[in-house]
Design goal:
heterodimer; A: 269 residues; alpha/beta; six-stranded mixed beta sheet; five-stranded mixed beta sheet; 7 helices; B: 197 residues; alpha+beta; eight-stranded antiparallel barrel; 41% strand; globular
């Protein structure tokens, strides 16, 4: 009987281990049971229910792709900052576009004490990633109005569409800037900045003109470059601000008062 | 001298061929079928395969898996799975257990969103370093085998197994995040039945 002891032990160990884990159909699933759903819309409802004051304080980040340990540090730090209204993640939420990665980020960010909004990045398109993004966050091109400010979240990952002239969606953008839904100013939020090679070159000029000629927006927020930046890139009225990736352990905090960007802080985490 | 060696080789070959072995044609016919639930190859996966040696410790299976829409699909995937049974343990004449059957499978997800190689015109070389269509999964595949000694299935083997797998991208995620990611987060399960005839 003794000779069965070890295999029996091994087998029960494996079964025990198995008990902690999940049955996976495919790493490329478009969603999985128990993962967050429609977060942008739900978090907007949450944002509207929270008490507001004169300052809109936005924590602006991007590129948390495969930086889970850092994302946990980030959440801890954000929760210790006073007066945060919401958090923006300017794309590359995942590295490989896998549902498991979205779910891990959802799990880590569920500990945030403030609403957060996701924008799609080029890495989030890999495989079925765009479907997972839509399941978890909602439409790529989506906007919300908060205290007379409109935040326009949109897809600028031109290379993922093989530069087909449709990304970013210029018609949608001009519609959004044309109908401000009661807001006086708009903040653009997207992943690839127009001056990057992954932006559709044919649309760079129309895009920057649309922004500066609208006289509705003066701030365009981007990720993708992994290094913080802040520049009136085209010498017009629009200020292009870039976020750091999570491995740099620094986030950008933006304070808006009376629809103006009055302060920008870099906060280490 | 060279002639002698040639004759010797021919004799050996002849010997090998004349021995009581199944012909190439017979050996190409699969000798086992598998039906699997989950296990990262599909919601439901069916496969045909071979045992590779007389002791039936090595095996190779070709599998097709499908994930329907309500479970996160649609996904169609082909998998090639190779295993070796390190430690088969006989319990009775009919029953045996293999706690340490290990191996790996490569799985290819079909469809226009999945690339074996990223399209050259669209992406610069090594823009993305991984393949979105192809995953490599190491596995641990403990199995309980039942081999009836009489009746219609005499000599056949029915095996039930659970399979633990992870994949290249999950393991890389774990290696770069040793606090948040742990084995429990990257090991996924499947279960199935194999019938060897």
């Amino acid at each position: 009987m003794r000779r069965y002891l070890l295999p029996a032990l091994l087998f029960s160990m494996i079964l025990f281990l198995g008990g902690c884990e999940e049955f996976e159909f495919s790493p490329n699933q478009k969603f999985k049971k128990g993962m967050p759903r429609d977060l942008n819309r739900k978090n907007y409802d949450w944002l509207l229910q929270r008490p507001a004051n004169d300052t809109i304080r936005v924590v602006f980040t991007g590129d948390c792709q495969r930086f889970y340990d850092e994302a946990e540090d980030f959440v801890g730090k954000v929760n210790s900052i006073n007066g945060v209204d919401f958090i923006l993640i300017a794309g590359d939420i995942t590295d490989f576009g896998l549902v498991q990665e979205f779910d891990w980020i959802g799990n880590i960010f569920s500990k945030l004490q403030h609403p957060y909004f996701g924008v799609i990045g080029n890495h989030d398109f890999s495989g079925n990633g765009e479907d997972v993004f839509m399941h978890m966050f909602g439409e790529y091109n989506w906007s919300f109005v908060y205290q007379d400010m409109k935040f326009i979240l949109h897809n600028t990952n031109g290379r993922e569409a093989n530069f087909n002239g449709k990304v970013p969606d210029m018609n949608w953008l001009s519609g959004e800037l044309g109908n401000m839904q009661g807001a006086t100013r708009a903040v653009m939020v997207s992943h690839v900045p127009p001056y990057d090679l992954d932006f559709d070159q044919k649309l760079e000029d129309p895009y920057r003109r649309l922004l500066s000629n609208s006289h509705k927006t003066y701030v365009s927020l981007h990720g993708h470059l992994h290094n913080a930046g802040d520049k009136y890139y085209y010498g017009d009225s629009v200020r292009y601000i870039n976020s750091s990736s999570y491995d740099k352990h620094v986030m950008t905090v933006l304070d808006f008062v009376d629809q103006e960007l009055v302060n920008k802080y870099m906060v280490n985490f | 001298m060279r002639k002698a060696i040639l004759i010797l080789i021919l004799c050996l070959c002849g010997q090998a061929l004349s021995a009581q072995r199944p012909s190439l044609g017979q050996r190409l016919v699969p000798n086992r079928v598998t039906l699997q639930y989950a296990g990262s190859t599909g919601w439901l996966t069916a496969g045909v395969g071979y045992t590779l040696d007389k002791q039936r410790r090595g095996s190779l299976d070709l599998m097709y898996g499908y994930v329907p829409e309500p479970f996160g699909g649609q996904i169609h995937a082909l998998s090639l799975k190779g295993m070796y049974d390190i430690w088969p343990i006989r319990i009775t004449d009919e029953l045996s257990v293999s706690p340490l059957q290990i191996g790996m499978f490569v799985s290819y997800t079909m469809g226009s969103d999945f690339y074996l190689f990223w399209p050259k015109g669209q992406y610069p070389f090594l823009y993305y370093w991984w393949s979105s269509g192809l995953r490599i999964h190491p596995i641990l595949h403990p199995e309980l085998r039942f081999k009836p000694q009489d009746g219609p299935f005499q000599g056949k083997t029915i095996a039930g197994y659970i399979e633990l797998n992870s994949n290249d991208l999950y393991i890389i995620s774990w290696l770069s995040n040793t606090e948040y990611v742990h084995p429990g987060r990257i090991i996924k399960l499947g279960a199935g039945l194999t019938f060897t005839f």
